[in-house]
Amino acid sequence: MNHDVGSAEVRSEDPYWFKRAVFYEVLVRSFRDSSGDGVGDLRGLAEKLDYLAWLGVDCLWLPPFYPSPLRDGGYDVSSYTDVAADIGNLEDFKVLVDSSHAHGIRVIVDFVMNHTSDQHPFFQASRNHPEGPYGDFYVWSDTNDRWPEARVIFVDTEQSNWAWDPVRGQYYWHRFYSHQPDLNFANPRVHDAIIEALSFWLEIGIDGFRLDAVPYLYERDGTNGENLPETHEFLRKVRGYVDEHYPGRVLLAEANQWPTDVVDYFGDPEAGGDECHMCFHFPVMPRIFMAVRRQSRYPISEIMAQTPPIPDSCQWGIFLRNHDELTLEMVTDDDRDYMWAEYATDPRMKANIGIRRRLAPLLDNDVNQMELFTALLLSLPGSPVLYYGDEIGMGDNIWLGDRDGVRTPMHWTPDRNAGFSSATPGRLALPVIMDPVFGYQAVNVEAQLANTSSLLHWTRRMIHIRGQHPAFGLGGFRDLGGSNPAVLAYLREFGDDVMMCVHNLSRFPQPVELDLRAFAGVQPIETLGGVEFPAVGELPYLLTLGGYGFYWFRLRRPQDDPDGGERPS
Amino acid sequence: MSEPFRAAIADYLGRQRWFAGGAARIREVHPLPWLSPPEHEPRVRVELVTVAAEPADSVYCVPMSYYSAEHPPYEHALVGTCVDAEGNTWTAYDALHDRAAVRWLVDGFATEAAAGGLRYHVTGELRLPDDVSSLVLTGEQSNTSLVIGEDMLLKVFRKVQPGRNPDIEVHAALQHAGSHEVAPLRGWVATDSGPPGGYDIAMLQDFLRTATDGWTYARASVRDLLAEGDLYADEVGGDFAGEAERLGVTVARLHTDLARVLPTVRWGPEQLAALSLRLRRRLREAIAELPELAEHAGTLERAYADLGEIEHPVPAQRVHGDLHLGQALRAVDGWRIIDFEGEPAKPLAERTAPDSPVRDLAGMFRSFDYAAHSVALSDAADRQRQHRAAEWAQRNREAFFAGYAAEHGSAGFEQHALLRAYEIDKAVYEAVYEKHHRPSWLEIPLAAVQRLAVVAA
Q1: How far apart are CA A532 and CA A528, in angstroms?
Q2: Residue B456: which H helix or E strand, with range?
Q3: Are A215 and A329 in contact (CB under 8 A)?
Q4: Cβ-Cβ contacts under 8 Å, B36 against chain A
Q5: Whole-angstrom distance, CA of residue B309 vs CA of residue B428
Q6: Average pLDDT over residues B62-69
Q7: Would the ipTM clear 0.95, i.e. be above it?
Q8: CA of B137, closest CA in chain A: separation in Å?
Q9: pTM of the full structure
Q10: b/e for B79-114, b at 16 or more Cβ within 10 A?
Q11: Contacts of B73 in chain A (CB under 8 A)
């Protein structure tokens, strides 16, 4: 079943490949265990590349797989240039990258540059040898009162951004957990070390990085230490280096801020963007949930209207769910948008979305809603990032600690351990889902592959349709409004490729009248079935949609002015 | 004009929502000069149609387009056929539904010149789209609005009156005040002939392309509530209170802006007494048409009499005058208020006279009641449904008022007697309207009158 490693390169040459790509976030430890030790590994992931290529995935995103004490899901990195022993070794990683490329799939990896684990050799050297070459690699202070303006991000576990190190006898700065000291970017040798680590992976052949927690790199007196100009300057330096030595690779920033602030991380629009190629658009996801809950298009329409234009060579990344809980970081101190207030006061939203759930349980396992959400994800502006398992509607296990509830093993078959591992079930690092609704005997890849009307097949068809239409990745976005506030309709346009996407956010059937004058005489073609709908006439275009129904139409532009008549001069 | 064609026009008018009263009796059709150049087809002009009405005749604005042969795409706007002096037969259409004709109607805005017996006025900078393709909006009652290009709205007044149209007047004043609560005004058109100053026949403003009206939006929320077995309004996803509160804020800002740029007065005892008298007169007229109201006459009149007790002076200003959910549009960045013509049935002078802002609050409160009960109407016997609909109305009324008071300060609006009197007046007006136009909805205002009478007693 495996393709030969090293077979013909099938990745496209397009340097802007990321603008049209469908990303797939996969946790190596939870995808496929090839060694039978109960932990997913790199070789296991490589075994499943046929499946991912079949699904239509263009790029894998691997969260941190580095050596780590695993006190923060691997984001506490103790070596920048190695692989955690339980998931494989560097050779396995190279095999995975080459094999992915042979499947036409790119690979980006998480890179945590703001901080390291306190177990990282840099930190050990820094605390033990203040005068040594790593003495200034972290932010040390004799007092713990500097930069009081910087908020504490993990308020439920940390009281301060400073922690006392008894070894060095000083305080060190940490924006996240106290076991994750921040690197000192004021030290140019830290820059060198980071760039050296990035080069290490780029040399192996990876296609880019997701850069974790980028707004916090620098500190400065009198500021909150977020989005500082120095931080942007460093990102420009990284971008320049990558462009020069490794063209076609992508930098994807995680900056959990409002779109108007996030656009700064694309860099100078005059220069076509000179920092990150991509940034996550965080507010889109909760807005989609909100819109469907309210059965109103305004939560989505509003955030799209507030999203500023981005440089031509850049792209948003959007997602429905990922390995994190839904982050409310922007909710608490932001009164710029009333939606958050409504969102936090709705008890049902609080109960379901503020916590760690997968897509299917969040949507009460309603296939119609899952399809609607996926249709929105695949058609709104930005490159969609799927979360492993959501394509089959996997469930979660809210009884597991921390964020592990949404990180359980992928369900491949109805067999032992869901086909994830041959280990004794008790040895699995995380248990498979076993409840009667979402259990692996009911929800697994094998069963859905065999059933062409499954969510998996449907998702694949949608991904393939998306791939056939450059408008989704490259095109403009135009909200069509319409007579019905429960229906969200928009055009995605790129040259001759015009897609009209119409979504019923309500559980009830709805009619909508759309102003399609620009397409008078055009017969919309529904893309899932290829059916031609009635031509656009003189009156507003009437559509009816079932509860949570949606249409993706292709519109061919009219060749000439149907009215003919001359214009008065 | 031939008698059959006149009959065709009368028949066409009789079928339009914007035409008040059943069969039209045409006294005169006054065509203005052609807007389209000679030999061009369609031939386009505005025609002013005078129709017999009580107490005075009404004048309607009917732009027409003429084709030498039938033009099937516009069949839904067909008026009829006529024969000209040379014996040629022409097929006439309502020009507002005819894209080829509308471009001649709006072209004057670009040149700001007089044409076709019309004078065009432009406020500030105006860029007409190159492609003047138009679309008639559905759902409008008393006028006809067209989208011009992508982002302009041409509102054509159907029943025209001498003097400045109040919609244009208020939009222009608010524009001057830099108000964000209305869509910006771009221009207007008046006739050259007719009474001094002519008739204002249309206004041009920015089109809120992605907006929907509050009536549709609110009723969706009510339907969502009633589809749930046993949840309260604040527990269902379609809860409208957040929107209602923001709408309250918008209306408060609108009132503040109107008071800033248009005349304000203060009502003392005489004005309040006069108001009380006016309301009582309207009530008696209503009872004459709808005897069911008579049983409450005593309590309602006492509610009006209470106006004499309220603390004065009462501030009065230009208000919307016919505010309801359908006059509020939800745009992507918040609410906008439209349609400042006031209650259509009232004479112009009364519609533009200063009034208490409480008038608009009462209108909105009545509208929440209507939205709720119009959805619940299908099951009038189900008391649980009626009760839950009433809860929805109460919740949104409170949210609206909270938004209004937070922005405006509640000062001056603790005058419950005034609010109650205006609510009664509105409900009585609605009852008479429904009796004539929509008897199946009559129970909504009647139930409201009964409720208000109990509170008043």
Answers
A1: 11
A2: helix B443-456
A3: no
A4: 568
A5: 22
A6: 94
A7: no
A8: 8
A9: 0.85
A10: bbbbeeeeeeebbbbbbbbbbbbbbbbbbbbeeeee
A11: 537-538
